[in-house]
């Protein structure tokens, strides 16, 4: 029912109760055709957020394109952890690796007015979407978006108070077994974490060491059941403090690692 209501609101250009209040009115044929198109796409498994091109995350609306993941509620944990880490830092500097739509980074900036940030992504299309969202939410003057793979576009000695990422963590051979809403409509670049689903964490752990300010932290999300493997990667890179954190579903979803 929720999917149908959202698609109806978008097809007819209504918000909230408008759709119910006008249910006795004759619908324009153009809008009916639009709704039929949306319904057919949904029946084929396309997520509602892809159809309407917008998803709410951390009480903000983010536009999407084919190069960006749909922000998921469990990922809001990363924003909570980030805001907790930087709450006493006057002018924190943040780096997000794999910025996608910008949902994580922009949500942090929207809630920490004096923070500045860099968002990196290998997809130029994703970066364009992030720029649109940053402007729409009003943080574009505090964030730079750089094209490249992981730390590639970051200046050698540049330091950050926080490095954050929700990297690809699905094993390559498991992608075809995912729900069709994911495997058919999410960008593969944002899903495929290599043979073991851990390749990005090795890069993030190893290179973050030289880019953290004193008392800086790395925050990463991972898949269910990956916490021991991800924690071990950071331990082997000699991080002094590692804490696991659970999402609202009581799944261990992220770690905070500090040097």
Major sheet details: 7 strands, mixed
Q: How many structural domains can be distinguished in the coordinates?
A: 2
Q: Can you tell me the CATH superfamily of the largest domain?
A: Vaccinia Virus protein VP39
Note the gap between the termini. 48 Å
CATH architecture descriptor text of the largest domain: 3-Layer(aba) Sandwich
Segments where pLDDT lies below 50 for 5+ residues? none
Helix content: 25-40%
Mean pLDDT, as a whole number?
90
Total DSSP helices? 10
Over the alpha carbons, how many angstroms does the gyration radius reach? 20 Å
Could you give the count of β-strands?
Answer: 9
CATH class of the largest domain: Alpha Beta
Class from secondary-structure proportions: alpha/beta
Compressed to H and E, one letter per element, the order equals HHHHEEHEHEHEEHHEHEE
Task: Classify the fold: give the CATH topology of the largest domain.
Answer: Rossmann fold
Note the beta-strand portion. Answer: 15-25%
For the largest sheet, list the strands in their spatial order: 5-4-3-6-7-9-8
Q: Mind sketching the topology for me?
A:
Layout: H1 2-12, H2 18-21, H3 29-43, H4 48-52, E1 54-57, E2 60-63, H5 76-86, E3 93-97, H6 103-111, E4 116-121, H7 124-137, E5 143-147, E6 160-165, H8 180-183, H9 199-208, E7 212-221, H10 227-236, E8 241-246, E9 252-258
Parallel strand pairs: 3-4, 3-6, 4-5, 6-7
Antiparallel strand pairs: 1-2, 7-9, 8-9
